[in-house]
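Take a careful look at the protein record below. Let me know whether the structure tokens fit the sequence:
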Amino acid sequence: MDFALYAAASGMAAQQRSLEVTAQNLSNLATPGYRPLRVEFADALGRAGAPGAIAMGVGSTGVRRLVTQGGLHPTDDPFDLALDGPGLFRLQRPDGSAVYARAGHFHPDPSGRLLDAAGNALLGETGPLLLPPGSQGLHVAADGSAVVTLANGSEAAVGRVSLAEFTDPGALISDGGGGLVAGAAAGPERTGTPGSSGLGRVHQGFLEDSGADMMREMTNMLQAQRLYELNSRALQAADEVWQMANNLRR
């Protein structure tokens, strides 16, 4: 009977985790470049997975990021960049560490670097992209080549956007500020330029929509709530049986 109690309790815990992840996805429906999360489940085996172990419910094996392409919508802002295809923008934090993102809403700082909302600088092939003082008319081609118009009307190349890809991009971890960081599970970083080696291409003046879908997330939420309720009833039933058994012993 303890198996029944454990199975029901583990099912409630699993669905509670699923609801938490769904709530996070729903809160990011309007976040550019957001990739939704999904909880992965597996049977929880008794006796530490020994041969002939009995399934004792369900457990969460982790939370993964879905590598889905969001729709692109125009913003007419020349500093907005979107990726169509695999890859992530390579960014540099103020402390010099690396972070990655699909969201491409940038703005120039006084030194000419292109920063995101968290103050991370967009990286080119040789370091942060830098716009010369007084430059205007930024143009970024599909292959990431960036050109500006100088004060004298001439054009100057300022570098090329650099992208990153990982063996398992679904294992990237949120840094809590809109960026993603790579743990060991994501595999080694592979860098390249847009349109090369299977990486996506850049669309200037666009932002990528969130990959979270309202209908899908609402369906997941209702399903998780229903399963939580069923497991709760199973737990209650198992508890009542235990009470009956204890009364018989008296």
